[in-house]
Amino acid sequence: QVPLVESGGGLVQAGGSLRLSCAVSGGTFSTHWGWFRQAPGKEREFVASIRWNSLTFYVDSVKGRFTISRDKVKNTVDLQMNSLKPEDTAIYYCTTGVYPRYDYWGQGTQVTVSS
User: Fold this and answer.
1) pLDDT tens for residues 12-71?
2) What is the DSSP string of the chain?
3) What is the C-alpha to C-alpha distance for residues 14 and 88, in angstroms, rounded to an integer?
4) What is the model's pLDDT at position 111?
5) Distance of alpha carbon 80 from alpha carbon 69, whole angstroms
């Protein structure tokens, strides 16, 4: 098991920003890292990912507002979220694994955007 610890969630007004961070512990081999989210009553959905070669991918609803990045030295994966909307409210999960699988998941961090 590879512990993934998310931080940075909270309550913010619409239009505001939050930065989520995920600390990846252990020596497991990974080729991609991602963020998913799950809103109340909905299925977990893909938000963003970054591959070993720095290629990034985003769900259409967050393009231009969210940015995923990875610090290879600190072994962290961040999600900068700008221009937040109420529909971004969800529990956000960090994940990693060997592409195309996501083998390890964090416990999640709550993001709430008020209108």
Assistant:
1) 999 999 999 999 987 778 899 999 999 999 999 999 999 999 999 999 999 999 999 999
2) ---EEEE--EEEETT--EEEEEEEPS----SEEEEEEE-TTS--EEEEEEETT--EEE-GGGTTTEEEEEETTTTEEEEEE-S--GGG-EEEEEEEESTT---EE---EEEEEE-
3) 9
4) 98
5) 8
- Across-strand partners of 94? 35
Instruction: For residues 18 and 83, give the distance between their C-alpha atoms in angstroms, rounded to a whole number.
Output: 9
- Measured between its terminal Cα atoms, the distance across the chain in Å is 38
Question: Could you tell me if 18 and 35 are in contact, meaning their C-beta atoms sit under 8 angstroms apart?
Answer: no
Residues 6+ apart with CB under 8 A from 53: none
